[in-house]
Design a protein that fits this description.
Layout: H1 5-20, E1 25-27, H2 29-43, H3 52-61, H4 65-77, E2 84-91, H5 98-101, E3 109-112, H6 116-126, E4 143-154, E5 160-163, E6 179-182, E7 188-195, E8 199-209, E9 215-225, H7 232-243, E10 251-252, E11 260-261, E12 265-270, E13 276-281, E14 283-291, H8 299-307, E15 319-329, E16 333-344, E17 355-361, E18 366-378, E19 381-384, E20 390-397, E21 400-401
Parallel strand pairs: 2-3, 13-17
Antiparallel strand pairs: 1-20, 2-4, 4-16, 5-6, 6-13, 7-8, 7-10, 8-9, 9-18, 11-12, 12-17, 14-15, 14-21, 15-16, 18-19, 18-20
């Protein structure tokens, strides 16, 4: 599979999160990109320049339409054990889309557009109940596409719990919360990284895996915080870079950083023989709805490409595109889902030695990226699967939450 598509997805994520802005939110750029890739599979001619809409779609995807279609087919044919994925292309009764269906991956569902209750049922079933309502109204729509992604994972090792004062006296969150999460001694990673986009940042990585004798699969959830004056889009870009780097090439030795306090960390010397990074960060949850109809996100050219050559085609095709997403990040695990819908030709949906030890503090808004890994043993060597290194979900965390009482140790419960 073409490796250039993952950097292209990261660039697409920057545009999508730019539309979402700096408010607390969660999204799946992959869910939106996957719908555009399905459109490419259904519409792309042998020469993209033959259709201006397809050429514009290729520019948004960041790769040739044929490559995007191949990526979509690979992800659907070899699903990740920890990430549920589903796609669909439906049509209204009386519309004949067989010429479009021919290029779709065989796993993509197709048929007559379900009614509103049927769409809600599809949303619940494909996201494991995490999203209960399908975004948008199918009434009067001739063609409709959808993608769903969901994961319910549990950390290999749960977080510990500590007082919110560990976020530091200068944190705007310390006085709002009573308890936050602390990195356990094993099973999680924390480090400082140097980035081009956001300068020195702090990173925490928690991992959920599934047991299998011949495969190595996981979902890595990486949190990245920068100085408060760094724009959110730069922090998100740095988070994507760090989360997708298997070799941690941006990691910085603590010996290269000054001792003492900073807004992001406290570094001191200790008698141990190796570096150690602790980290504290809050629980959080988010439910978001994103209008994807704006310029630069690709759904306008996707709609025009789908209706090209039909009596409904033209330069002014009506369409609607929206994504619903949710996430919960807590002591024991991470639940996350997205549902992206594209309606074409109808009304748009409504909007939505002495060594060093450091304590890293996620004490103000920061970015989160969840990346899938997928490798299998083949003749004593690891072979990457289609999901390896794929960023599946991302978020901007601006509204922290307390650790629920039931997730605290008994002696920490409030009276």
């Amino acid at each position: 599979m073409d490796e250039k598509w993952i950097p292209a997805l990261a660039r697409y994520a920057a545009r999508l999160h730019g539309v979402a802005g700096d408010e607390h939110h969660v999204a799946s750029p992959l869910g939106a990109w996957l719908l555009l890739a399905l459109t490419a599979a259904a519409t792309a001619p042998a020469q993209p320049d033959a259709d201006p809409a397809v050429a514009e779609l290729a520019a948004v995807l960041g790769v040739e339409p044929g490559v995007a279609a191949e990526v979509a087919a690979g992800l659907l044919a070899d699903p990740h054990p920890l990430v549920a994925v589903a796609t669909a292309m439906w049509h209204a009764a009386g519309v004949d889309p067989e010429h479009r269906y021919a290029g779709l991956p065989e796993q993509t569902e197709r048929g007559v557009i379900p009614d509103a209750a049927g769409l809600d049922r599809w949303a619940r079933e494909r996201t494991g109940g995490l999203i209960e309502k399908f975004p948008g109204d199918p009434a009067g729509v001739p063609v409709m596409l959808a993608s769903a992604l969901a994961a319910r994972v549990r950390w290999e090792v749960p977080f510990e719990v500590t007082a919110a004062s560990a976020l530091g006296a200068d944190s705007p969150w310390a006085s709002r919360l009573t308890h936050v999460l602390r990195k356990p001694v094993r099973g999680h990673e924390a480090f400082v990284a140097g980035t081009d986009q956001a300068g020195d940042v702090i990173a925490h990585r928690a991992v959920a895996t599934t047991e299998a004798s011949d495969t190595r699969v996981a979902l890595r959830v990486v949190s990245v915080a920068a100085s408060r004056d760094v724009p959110p889009e730069d922090v998100l870009a740095a988070a994507y870079e760090i989360a997708c780097d298997d070799r941690d090439r941006r990691r910085k030795p603590l010996a290269d950083l000054p001792l003492g306090e900073s807004p992001l960390w406290t570094i001191r010397e200790w008698a141990g023989s190796s570096e150690w990074c602790d980290a504290v960060l809050p629980c959080w949850s988010a439910a978001s709805e994103h209008d994807l109809t704006g310029p630069g996100l690709g759904f306008g050219p996707a709609a025009r490409a789908l209706l090209a050559g039909t009596e409904m085609g033209g330069d002014a095709v009506e369409f609607g595109a929206v994504q619903s997403a949710m996430a919960r990040f807590g002591r024991n695990g991470f639940d996350v889902a997205s549902l992206t819908g594209l309606t074409v030709g109808g009304a748009a949906p409504e909007e939505p030695s002495r060594s060093r030890i450091a304590e890293l503090r996620f004490a103000h808004p920061y970015a989160v990226v969840a990346v899938a890994t997928q490798q299998r043993w083949d003749d004593r060597r690891l072979i990457d699967g289609p999901w390896h290194g794929v960023p599946v979900f991302s978020a901007w965390v601006g509204e922290p939450e307390d650790v629920p009482v039931e997730d605290r140790d008994p002696d920490e419960w409030d009276d």
